[in-house]
Amino acid sequence: MTEAVDIYTDGACSGNPGPGGWGAILRYNGKEKELFGYAPDTTNNRMEMTAVIEALRSLKRSMPVRVHTDSQYVQKGMTEWIHGWKRRGWKTAGKDPVKNEDLWRMLDELAAGHPIEWFWVKGHAGHPENERADELARRGIELKRGS
Fold it and tell me: Does the annotation count 134 as an active-site position?
């Protein structure tokens, strides 16, 4: 059995919408990799999703994944809501277009390449990896401000 990679993600926004950052930590077989980035005009939810998308993109092959996120939007979206959205042609139960459909489609496509377990963790509650992912997301915003 292949060991799973643990992915810890977070997104941050300075204003919502506003400049945003995302951060991810990938831990596999005793090794760790940190990723982070920036978007000029975005929302917190888009940054939460982007963190997972970029982490999954960085994987070199299909493998078991455990995603740890403090975003119920991402966790519930991927475990509960997405199936209905796809069945309804990317519409909500109320027949409205799904917000962030572009990112949901991307995340769905990337997730299809891996067996994934999705875990929600309480944000800003002393979870060390979640706190670090938050620092990385904020670093994305700060580095862009400094440029």
Answer: yes
Active site residue 102: no
User: Which among 6, 11, 68, 129 is annotated as catalytic?
Assistant: 11
pTM over 0.90? The answer is yes
Catalytic residue among 23, 129, 134, 140: 134
Write down the domain spans for the chain: 5-146
Of residues 70, 77, 129, 140, which has the active-site annotation?
70
| 123-146 pLDDT, tens digit each | 878 889 999 999 999 999 998 776
Written as one string, the DSSP assignment of the chain is -PPPEEEEEEEEESSSSEEEEEEEEEEETTEEEEEEEEEEEE-HHHHHHHHHHHHHHT-SS---EEEEES-HHHHHIIIIIHHHHHHTTSB-TTSPBPTTHHHHHHHHHHHTTS-EEEEE--TTSS-HHHHHHHHHHHHHHHHHHH-
pLDDT digits (tens, 9 = 90+) for 21-31: 999 999 999 99
Q: Which CATH architecture has domain 5-146?
A: 2-Layer Sandwich (3.30)
